[in-house]
Amino acid sequence: MSATILEMKNITKVFPGVIALDQVNIRVAQGEIHALVGENGAGKSTLMKVLSGVYPHGTYTGDILFQGTPCEFKDIRSSEDLGIVIIHQELALSPHLSISENIFLGNEQARFGVIDWNKTTELTRGLLAKVGLSELPNTKISSIGVGKQQLVEIAKALSKQVKLLILDEPTAALNDNDSENLLQLLLELKRQGITSILISHKLNETAKVADSITILRDGKTIETLDVKKDSVTEDRIIKGMVGRDMTHRFPERTPQIGEVMFEVKNWNVFHPEYEGRQIIFDANLNVRKGEVVGLAGLMGAGRTEFAMSVFGRAYGKHITGTIIKNGKELKLHNVAQAIDAGIAYSTEDRKQLGLILIDDIQHNTTLAALRKVSNGVVVNENQEIIEAEQLRKSMNTKCSSLKQKTVNLSVGNQQKVVLSKWIFSGPDLLILDEPTRGIDVGAKYEIYTIINRLASEGKSVLLISSELPEILGLCDRIYVVSEGRFTGQLSRAEATQEKVMKLMLQGKGN
Amino acid sequence: METIARLFRDNIRQYGMVLALLLIGGFFQIMTGGILLNPLNVTNLVLQNSYILILAIGMLLVIVAFQIDLSVGSIAAFIGALSGVMMVTLALPFWLSMIVILIFGAILGSWQAYWIAYVRIPAFIVTLAGQLLFRGLTYVTLQGQSIGPFPAEFQLISSGFLPDFFGGQGIHITTVLLGIVASIAIIWSEFSKRAALKKYGFERLSMTLTILKLIVLVGSLNAFTLVLAAYKGIPNVLILLTALILVYTFIANKTIAGRHIYALGGNEKAAGLSGVKTKKVLFWVFVNMGVLSALSGMVFAARLNAATPKAGVGFELDAIAACFIGGASVSGGIGTIFGAMVGAMVMGVLNNGMSLMGVGIDWQQAIKGLVLLFAVAFDVFSKSKG
Predict the structure, then answer these.
(1) Same domain for A145 and A271?
(2) Is A381–B262 a contact, with Cβ atoms under 8 angstroms apart?
(3) Is residue B345 part of a domain?
(4) E strand or H helix at A36, and its extent?
(5) N or C: which end of chain B has fewer CB within 10 A?
(6) Residue B227 lies in a domain
(7) Which residues of B touch A377 (CB under 8 A)?
(8) In a domain, A371, yes or no
(9) ipTM reported for the complex, 2 dp
(10) What is the CA radius of gyration of chain B?
């Protein structure tokens, strides 16, 4: 076996209320391509942030050995100095600058503070040749495609004398051709002696280029597979990714499912900014009265975009398709109409999109349906307090008073305020987008209880979640989305983690 | 004691500014040998600041919505010019002119509102352009000349006083009576509010504190009316102002529209996803600003008794400063009409007191600048502590 370039030992990283990494171990050999796989939230990105110094030494426990020496990185700069470079999923390029300016951003080729542009251009040419780009160094970043931008990122990494290159989902936004190019480049870099860590959801490409694969699950290292020795198939990887014990418990519910209440037919959505980029393709979905329906998919599969586009066109352009509620077609042009029609959408991004953080619980609770505590113009504050207090009690929101600002609540209680808001609006259909993200186990159980209660009251719930056990434990029926397409529908009886995962990955080149 | 401490902590910015106003007032009262609070000067304080106070009401809503309006001074000037043309040059009846001009203010407001709310051009740019545009149009309209004098009825807006129905000698009896009536109204509303809170079993202030609060409130109100009564009584413009403050405080605190403005400024995206029609709300906030700018422009023209091309220069900055001194948040979503009024009065008393002391306009500017900076710094500081 070849020499070890990197070893991370017993890495534990705790966020308030959550253990993100629990005694994680990973060993990367010199000159290999090492893949890191796992579900959303398994801890891959956190681990890489620990490695690259985004989470500085002291905020985690455990040891990092790079080329045999222990490292204590205090920031990204100190890990880059050793040749560890991370390329994030969201590219960190400045769109209005040229390729060469971007490559040497923060590392300018200057003498006495004056940039030597000739040297910069010459060096850029060499780097671009290495990654197989024929663009001129002074081309603007915004004028080249995502695939080429990715290559510029790699060229930038090469300019820093990279020894260990970390790529977080590099092919997620690329088409098949660009993906293939990128993978070939990784193999080429490997021949030049550069080690890479590849985080990817695309298991087929992982199996193709990786020499070994480490699987993370729930913040723990499950196993490391040697691609040459073990006979690694995609099914084998999936099994490692999902094969956990059901540690979460879900409250019992006897489903009382009625007629089809809500239907979406032939739904197509395009990206609001990139003209011609389709996000949702011909989606069909229905939800019955009293039913909890799950919407499973990987991050970026289009679940949130689908939900928001249905919710009064809060997302997307050129939306086509029909929405039918109780047999009647709905024409929804804005969020207010959607709320009036009895639809509620609780966002995955509580802080940015869900709450007015500088305002109090009371005002946040009633914001979506102020009309219910007013005569149409003037708000009856006494009635408002009564309604908000009632919801606070039934949701068991812990706070000093209704006048407490939501910014000072814990995430679990913030989520309860968001749910209160939507329950107060009196919807027939609640779309809950990642209602338990970032929430500790105890509060999760409370949220599950609330979901069950809503269903038993005859409301319909559409649950979007990245946690498969949650989907399997709560839902009567599951739709799976992959790359903007609905790839399948499973009943509670037939759904297993493996089946859902397979559908989630479908279209990812499989 | 604990409740008082909490009350103070929760409202530190508001109480702090009232306290600052009292301190500044006390300081100048001593330094000017009692001139600051003599009846004539108090009346003058109201008259001098009325147009800024009117602008500050509209500006507060703009700032709460996380926007800015730099054009209000120019709009006020342009409106003054139009008043001059309509009432003096064309000799139209003053009431007809006033109605037309208010509508015109709404049109100017909606012109800017359209670019800001629907085309999404930053308010800073749109209203900076408006500042230039409307100032230019003022010069065009007036051709560099002043127009005046205005009809007597129109002048009364700014220079008239409420007549004394009781014919008091040396003291304006109606003013004193109005002070007493307002006091009774305040006491009645406070107790009926308490009764409602009790009925619903909500948390309320202790009786002692309530009475203390009422004594301070009613005491200062009557002191104010008594001082006014010793001169000519209540100026007409104060009645207008009081009505505006009451109506806009009500809108801001008690109506759906008001809630939507605060929600929009607090978090535009979250408000939008809660069904607030953010563009529409933004649009109307600027239309409203246009109307209040028009009103302010007329009050100023009436006070000056002339429409001049230089009217309203720098008004926007005074109005903006008033809002921030009065506790409005620089990042939107927080602020009260009352606070903005206190902020405007802080600036007004500083101006007036320094003028009385013979401090030159140069130093006045410099000191006002520092007051604005320290007031907002105090806000930032108390927030990071809290």
Answers:
(1) no
(2) no
(3) no
(4) strand A33-37
(5) N
(6) yes
(7) 255-257
(8) yes
(9) 0.87
(10) 21
Can you list the positions of beta strands (E) in A131-242? 164-168, 195-199, 212-217, 220-226
Count the domains in chain A. Answer: 3
Residue of B nearest to A408 (CA): B386
Q: How far apart are CA A142 and CA A98, in angstroms?
A: 9
Residue A458 · residue A290 · CB < 8 Å: yes
What's the confidence (pLDDT) of residue B183?
95
Stretch (H or E) spanning A288: strand A278-288
Residue B49 lies in a domain: yes
Please classify residue A273 by burial: count the beta carbons closer than 10 Å to its beta carbon, then call 0-12 exposed, 13-18 middle and 19+ buried.
exposed
| Residue of A355, A357, A378 to mutate for B, most B C-beta atoms under 10 A | A378
Say whether both A94 and A201 belong to one domain: yes
Lowest mean pLDDT among A244-258, B120-134, B305-319: A244-258
Q: Is B305 on the interface with A (CB under 8 A)?
A: no
Judging contacts by C-beta atoms under 8 Å, the chain A residues touching residue B197 are 382
Q: How far apart (Å, rounded) are the C-alpha atoms in residues A370 and A377?
A: 9
Q: Is residue A347 part of a domain?
A: no
Q: Answer yes or no: do A452 and A312 share one domain.
A: yes
Mutate to test the interface with B, among A334, A359, A386 (most CBs of B within 10 A): A359
Residue A401 within a domain: yes
CA distance linking residue A364 with residue A355, whole number of Å: 7
Tell me the average pLDDT across A153-177.
85
Domains identified in chain B, total number: 2
Whether B122 and B154 map to the same domain: the answer is yes
DSSP string, B233-299: --BHHHHHHHHHHHHHHHHHHHBHHHHHHHHHHH-HHHHHHTT--HHHHHHHHHHHHHHHHHHHHHH
> Angle at the Cα of B314 (from B310 to B318), degrees rounded to 5?
145
Q: For B275, which of A353, A368, A381 is closest by C-beta distance?
A: A368
Give the closest residue to A68 by CA, choosing from A3, A23, A11. Answer: A3
B65 has a chain A CB within 8 A of its CB: no
Closest CA to A354 of A429, A308, A419, A413: A419
In this structure, the answer to whether residues B280 and B382 fall within a common structural domain is yes
Q: Residue B3 domain-assigned?
A: no
Average pLDDT over residues A58-67: 91
Considering the domain architecture, whether residues B213 and B131 belong to the same structural domain is answered as no
Question: What range does the domain containing B172 cover?
Answer: 162-234
Summarised one tens digit per residue, pLDDT across range A401-448 is 888 899 888 888 999 999 999 999 999 999 999 998 877 667 788 899
B196 in reach of chain A (CB within 8 A): yes
Average pLDDT, rounded, for chain B? 91
pTM assigned to the model:
0.81
- Same domain for B176 and B230, yes or no, is yes
- Give residue-wise pLDDT tens across range B183-202: 999 999 989 888 888 887 77
